Amino acid sequence: MSSESAVQSAPPRRDVAFAKMHGLGNDFVVLNASALARPLDEHTIRRLADRRLGIGCDQLLLLETAVEPLRYRVFNADGGEVEQCGNGARCLARYAVEQGLAAGPAVQLLSAAGPVAARVDGDSVSINLGVPRFAPADVPFEASAEADSYAIDVGGEQIQVGALSVGNPHVVVEVDTVETAPVARLGPLLERHPRFPRRTNVGFLQIVSPAHCRLRVFERGVGETPACGTGAAAAAVWGRRCGRLASRVTMSLAGGELVVEWAGPDQPVWLAGPATSVFEGRITL
What residues are annotated to the active site? Predict the structure, then answer.
């Protein structure tokens, strides 16, 4: 093949506008699918997420429609697509209002996990993540029956965990204090534990009082992040289901505070906190 033929057959590339956003340090690159010359592949997503060679992010948010409900897809830094991202959905709602895609303050979003109702009040954005699911098949998690907690063998020890879905899979481990929580050791082992066929996000929860908790989260496909919206929701829901937490909980994470409200069974869980626009730019893809 001649060099001229090779150039002619190369995939098209285009300058694409992007936005960089974050929710308590959990950061995102937002792209509009309509601007892309070709679909994104895992290699491109990993390059965009790389903090030295790309823009840098925990997740890439791909907006697929320009009218409500605004459909979006979520890709982790490792290139894998996932069902939902709480802080990402909150940032997308603010992005939609800033870009004139939604009038606000109410914004209707749609993810692989289902519809997401959002409300944008300046820097603060709240979202409805739907009704939490506890049936093992819905997480998904391998267990013979539904329970508040499960014994699981990991890293040569048996620990008790909660397992649930708030649009994506979560496991919750209660700890005495988040400072000494074995995040680096147990996080990767639980994320890829064989009882979680789609892997899972791992939350290490310290209950300070019925209305206040501290949390660290090892995110699936990313690692530990300064904050995790669905992780905060899952931890608060699990604690309330176990009779330990109130219906409204302030969740303190390394990046700041999120507020989770859950009235109880068959009710949706709400997540609220700041969503921040960092900068806009263009990149060739």
Answer: 85, 228
Q: List strand residue ranges (DSSP E) for the chain, in order.
A: 15-23, 26-32, 59-63, 70-76, 81-82, 106-111, 114-121, 124-128, 150-154, 157-165, 169-174, 201-209, 212-219, 223-225, 248-253, 256-262, 269-274, 276-284
> What is the model's pTM?
0.93
Work out whether strand 212-219 and strand 248-253 pair parallel, antiparallel, or are unpaired. Answer: parallel
Helix (H) or strand (E) holding 8: helix 3-9
Pairwise CA distance, residues 188 & 220, whole Å: 8
Distance between the two ends of the chain, CA-based, in angstroms?
24
- 45-94 pLDDT, tens per residue? 999 999 999 999 999 999 999 999 999 999 999 999 999 999 999 999 99
For the record, the structure tokens of 205 come out as 């929860």
Among all chains, which residue has been given the structure tokens 């590339």? 13
φ/ψ of 87, rounded to 5, equals: -65, -35
Instruction: Tell me the residue type at 253.
Output: L
Nearest-angstrom CA–CA distance, 53 and 67: 33
Question: What residues contact 197, with CB distance under 8 A and at least 6 apart?
Answer: 140, 142
The pLDDT tens digits for 205-237 are: 999 999 999 999 999 999 999 999 999 999 999
Map tokens 């609220």 to a residue. Answer: 272
